[in-house]
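tool=predict chain=A
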Amino acid sequence: MTALAPTLQAFFIDRLVAQRAASPNTIAAYRTSLLLLVRFASEQTGKNPNQLDIADLDAPMVAAFLEHLESDRHNSPRTRNNRLAAIHSLFAYAALRHPEHAGSIQRVLAIPAKRYQRNLVTYLTDDEVDALLAACDPTTWTGRRDHAILTLAVQTGLRISELINLTCGDVTLGAGANVHTVGKGRKERRTPLAAHTVTVLRTWLAERGGTDTDPLFPTATGRQLSRDAIEHRITFCSAIAAELCPSLRTKHPTAHTLRHTCAMRLLLQGVDVAVIALYLGHSQTSSTDLYLHADMRQKERAIASVTPPATKPGRYRAPDTLLAFLEAL
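tool=predict ok
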């Protein structure tokens, strides 16, 4: 057996699980990235995966893999950089265990992340939110469940992973109504619920039944919803809502769009960015600053509050013939 296989196993068991106590989502993301890399290297070299060595995953191979992600798998630069981050983490761990491969490892670690254009966030207006919620069929069990999911997502801004992991016991509907989550980075928080959301969830829980440990939003068979299932339901409801609200056709809402919508609604109501960061579970307010860029009304108010300069408009004219000559060049 080569050095790569035991190093990969030790990376997940010793490094991620034992030392860093990484979350299941982090482990799953790293697993997918490294699984894709090993399969790609196996195809390129003609070797079985368990025959690959660290030297086979050199800088040219990793660079070719990153190009494959963008050109063949049509991954975005952001996804490409996430895959590279997982590879860097593995090779930084391998550098401590296999100094004989130090040169090859350092060349892989030197591969930079790709720069990309950061677009403004997409969020839904109040009319678009109303159309999306109205698209849920109240005559079916699935429609009533979808309505509860979308209502909660828009009001609380929960991540899709947080929505999936919610149990019936995570919801408190009495005094100080809130929903309890353990989000990214294992940060625990309680998000307050609005009166309308409380009404929707109380009705849903009465129909849903179950124990405190059961999923809050299950499948028809009672199992936990998957990420793809929630995204599919949002896409399905969006297609119906677009018939009543045509502007939805250009936005293609996702679960993260609903999170952005929650943040923008808070911002437009004058809530401080630091409070929004706590509300969404951001580690730093810099993650929340992107919503300031998307809000044109705040920029317009800032411009309106500035006193215009008292200078008269006019064209600069050089006071000297020599300066005039130089300016004309």
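The first helix runs from residue 4 to 19. Residues 126-297 form a domain with the hpI Integrase; Chain A fold (CATH 1.10.443.10).
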